[in-house]
Each structure stands twice: as structure tokens, then as C-alpha cells.
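Service request form, structural biology core

Requester: graduate student, group of Dr. S.
Request type: structure prediction, single chain
Budget code: on file
Notes: please return the result as C-alpha cells.

Sequence provided:
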Amino acid sequence: MLTPSVTAGSGESATSLLGIDEVQKALSRSRASVYRYTNTDPRNLNPAFNPRRLNPEYRSDQKDPLLFHPNEVARFARDVLRIKEVTVEVLNSPSTATQQLLGAILGELQAIRLRLDQLDLDAETRSAA
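Core staff response, request fulfilled:
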């Protein structure tokens, strides 16, 4: 029995979506068959949800690549392809410079909060004495 593992990085929404190549590997199907499964229409950029098809995420332009949410790929594998065991695995993406900077800012804000709390406690102690 096939057990596809649908994997995506976490973080920004664009990085957690799967492209055609990742879907092909997860479903163990050819690229052509993945395109056949996909809910697309040349006359309609974003067709309505079709439970018998693999539904891509919203696109704003016909030239945008087809991207799929990992849960949609898992739903399609389970419900349409009748693959019994489907695993959706979300991996943490490596820390970016922005995440590191935000972490440093958070650390400084926490240190400031701690110092302000100590100053308030010292002022209360002095006024009580």
C-alpha cells in the first residue's frame, strides 16, 4: 500500500504550499497525471471547488504557478485516489534574518519590561516604608 508523505515548510504562506513537483513526489504519480487531476479551466482562472479534483490555491494571474495546500493534497490522495494512509508533515523552516531580528527585539522588550517591573517594585517599597 502506498503511503505518501506530504511535506511543507512552515512560515510564510507561499513557502508552505506545494508545487507540481512536490505533489508529483508525494502522490507517486507522473507530472502529466498530476496536471490531469488538477481542477483547472482555461476560461476560469479560479474554478469552484471540485471534490473529485485536486484544487490549487487562489491565483491572481494565469501565469502564476499552480500551488497546492498540503491538506488539499492529502484530502485528494485519501478521498479520490483511495490511498489509505496519508501523512501530512509540516517542517519548520530555517530561521531567517528577519526572524532572528524579531527574536532579538523580543528579548530586548522583555528585558525592558523586567527592568520597569523592578523599578515599580522599588518605588512601592520606598513609599511603604
